[in-house]
Amino acid sequence: MLEQFEEKMAKSLDSLENEYSNIRAGRANPNILNKIKVEYYGVPTPLQQVGNVSVPEARTIVITPWEASLLKEIEKAIICSDIGLTPNNDGKSIILNFPELTEERRKDLVKDIKKKGENAKVAVRNVRRDANDYFKKQFKANEISEDEQKDYENKVQKLTDKYIEKIDSTIENKSNEIMTV
After folding, report:
1. 111-163 pLDDT, tens per residue?
2. Helix, strand, coil distribution of the chain in percent, nearest 5
3. pTM of the model as a whole
4. What are φ and ψ of residue 145, in 5° steps?
5. Distance between CA 4 and CA 41 in Å, rounded?
6. Which run of H or of E encompasses 55?
């Protein structure tokens, strides 16, 4: 019975980690390109499927398309995206250079990280509320005893504490990563 609620809590944590992977920390991370789609024969296609993405240096990503005709499309897709980088086209590949983060920008990123973390905690707490409501309804319908209801609520609280702790740890790790780059 608890599995469905734990699964929802895990999805909240996964979603947060996915959001964090798209935050650029001043060094090249190919994950920021995950959401970019390129028009490939009229079909929006993930960038990783139309070329080779490599990280030759700590602050540089190089995208080499498998077809030279895609250079302009890749460049256009990157410019239209919200990653905040300007692509450089050398005729064979696209080069993305990551600028050094300023102290102010780092602090803004940490604020954003904490805000996203708080949203994930709220999502986990909402799952706890839904679970407790579910068990109260079961008790009122005489499907479970009062002791079973209390037992389930305690287990849900332990799950909630576990996922809140994981979220706090994820927030702290990402904040430290941003501040020490």
Report:
1. 989 999 999 999 999 999 999 999 999 999 999 999 999 999 999 999 999 99
2. 60, 15, 25
3. 0.69
4. -85, 170
5. 41
6. strand 51-57
